[in-house]
Amino acid sequence: MIASLFDLFSSITDGDRAAVDEQLATTPSLVTLGLSRADECFLERAGAQIYEGDTALHVAAFSHDATIARLLLTVGSDVRARNRRGAEPLHSATMGGPGRATWDSLRQQEVIVCLVEAGAAIDARASGGVTPLHRAVRNRCAGAVETLLRLGADPRLRNDSGSTAADLARWTTGRPGSGSAAARAQQQIISELLSNA
Question: pTM for the full model?
């Protein structure tokens, strides 16, 4: 079964909707199956680490593919599924950022809207009290920050370290490329969005 799940993940990261349809028709249980701890790994194509409990919807979310996300939701994916780090698909949707080959701000915003419309909790907390907004700020994804704020994310929430989204916007994130010109430009936009929130 795990081989089939990885095949599905590959089809999602490739944006191969026909293959996703076929795989789900053949093995419908893949739509809700979560990864096991023993199978955690880095998905090279997507540039993303996957964890125990990650589902096909998590993969569609960090692949910024709203079309596949809608398909998965239609056939029974759980928009509130949590991986072992507490991250839900909405957290996964905020992955990416300037300088990352797989990042597409407009597609990212579209999948965020898709997930929230499907019932994702806008302020869901993962390990460390991290909300999707915290993660979007840390990844320097201004479009995702704007979308989350527009959809009702609370910028005043603090993570377990006591940091708000605005705090994270001011500090160096430690992410690779966070000091690049593109990341600094996103950081400036994010700071302005949060100051007006």
Answer: 0.95
- Looking at residue 63, its amino acid is S
Round to whole Å and give the CA distance between 139 and 135.
6
Orientation angle between helical segments 66-74 and 17-26, nearest 10 degrees: 20
Q: Does residue 57 register a pLDDT over 80?
A: yes
d(CA 69, CA 113): 11
Q: What is the pLDDT of residues 65-111, one digit of tens each?
A: 999 999 999 999 999 999 999 999 999 999 999 988 889 999 999 99
- Helix (H) / strand (E) element for 2: namely helix 2-13
From residue 37, give the alpha-carbon distance in Å to each of 2, 40, 50.
12, 6, 10
How do the domains of the chain map onto residue ranges? 2-195
At 180, give phi and psi (nearest 5°).
-70, 160
Out of 1.25.40.20, 1.10.443.10, 3.90.45.10, 3.55.40.20, the CATH code matching 2-195 is 1.25.40.20
Distance CA 137, CA 140 (A): 5
Give the integer Cα–Cα distance in Å for 75 and 165.
34
